[in-house]
User: Fold this.
Amino acid sequence: MSTPAGPDRVIIFDTTLRDGEQSPGISLNAGEKLEIAHQLARLGVDVIEAGFPIASPGDFEAVRAIARADLGGSRPTIAALARAQAGDIERAGEAVREAAAEGRGRIHTFISTSDIHIEHQMRNTRADVLEGAKAAVAHARSLVDDVEFSPMDATRADVEFTAQVIQVAIDEGATTINVPDTVGYATPDEYAAFLRRLYEHAPGLRDVVLSVHCHDDLGLAVANSLAGLGAGARQVECAVNGIGERAGNTALEELIMLLATRGDRLGYATGAVTTEIARTSRLVSRLTGYAVQPNKAIVGRNAFSHESGIHQDGVLKDRSTFEIMDPASVGIDDAEQLVLGKHSGRAALKDALARLGHPVDGQELRRAFDAFKVLADRKKTVTAMDLEALVADELEAGEDDDLVLVDYTVEVRDARPPHATVVLESAARGRVTGSFTGDGPVDAVFRALDSALGVDARLRDYRVASVTGGQDALAQASVVLELGTPGSAERWDIPGVTGGERITAAGQGVDTDTLRASAIAYLRALNLGVRRVAGPRPQGDAAVAAP
Ligand code: KIV
Ligand code: ZN
Assistant:
């Protein structure tokens, strides 16, 4: 990539779609990843790490789709992760090929330098690591010009050995060196000192971009990233809402607003369009099913609300009394000001959707308007968040979904376990019904859906969040299913689906009725699972564990 100008310009490397997607229970499909990538470009990030292509055919396709897409906005560099192994690097290079042809495709390769990882995980030697890093970077450079190298678990590694590996990577052509605090163990002073020593022992580091990648196990990810900048780093790896492996990564919104708000003291610049932060956070939360805690800095519901009388009094007189940032600067006011009701017309809806970044016309607008009218009849006010959920729901409803929920009933009595009946319509199977007595109403509906289709799905994850506050709030349900019953092919009664396969599939549903939202989410996951099993199987389906 062309490095943004200026010695104090910080490169924002977003890893929401890679490290963020490694959070337990998150499973984004290619369409969802692409939607997030578009929004990240609007937000103005410099690099999007789109995935780990060797991990699965789905991950490969998602990275390739993002690398091929015209994202507009900041036209970010697209990075693909690869272990220091030939197969990984080939696959990563293939996935970002189109972006690389335009000078914005990156391979990010990594290998651990800590003895803990070398001895206990890789079971090899320091010499193997040195050789592996050298070969991996050389291979990556033969495919793309932009190569990032990370010595994993660096902060628990011997600094001189890590510097030696880094120097070899630079000699082979790495253009960015990223130093991960993989297990979130370092303290800010320690991390900065470690980076300074790397500069001493690897002189080539002065000629490339130094990057920081901090995990939040001790709540220090942002502080450590800032300390890294102080030591000379000019790229920060972060994820929207701080999602990521275990306790997550440096929260992108916190880092960006820290640099923006305390520019007086810190003097760094980014290319971020801060007014896109709130929308990006809501999108990632909705698609991942990971709710944002109310008191989360910058994007939490309470980040700009004042509870105590003294605070409210002060803010009413002058916002600067208790507010260090203008909510408008992170795009919060926009969403709050946008309110529609049941008397709002098509033009108002079209205008509101355009302001939210979803320009619609013609048939699409008619469909959106119909859905809006149904919602506005049930909800007094329809906010920006509701509209975003509505649009997402329309997008989620796959055109080739075979299974459609026609009706459901659940009998719930105090003395008896709940009993659910569902009615489905399917082009392939006609009208089918199923019923089941479950542990609770949601369980009963899910099992009734299973029984209607004769499948044995395992619920891996189920979450419900309210899109806004209030009694009439929309519920958004997310479901991750594991489908497949080895050895019981006869139980599958769906065309094209055979037994003996295990796949996971996710779905989301939005409705003012929580049970209906849950049933729709479950059915969409089933639809997706069925399509996946029935569709053509891409090559190289072996799943590789994420780093
Ligand atoms: O935390 C880590 O070390 C990583 C590497 C793959 C960069 O995510
Ligand atoms: Zn990480």
Residues 485-499, 535-543 have pLDDT under 50 and may be disordered. The chain has 19 helices and 16 strands. Residues 333-396 form one domain.
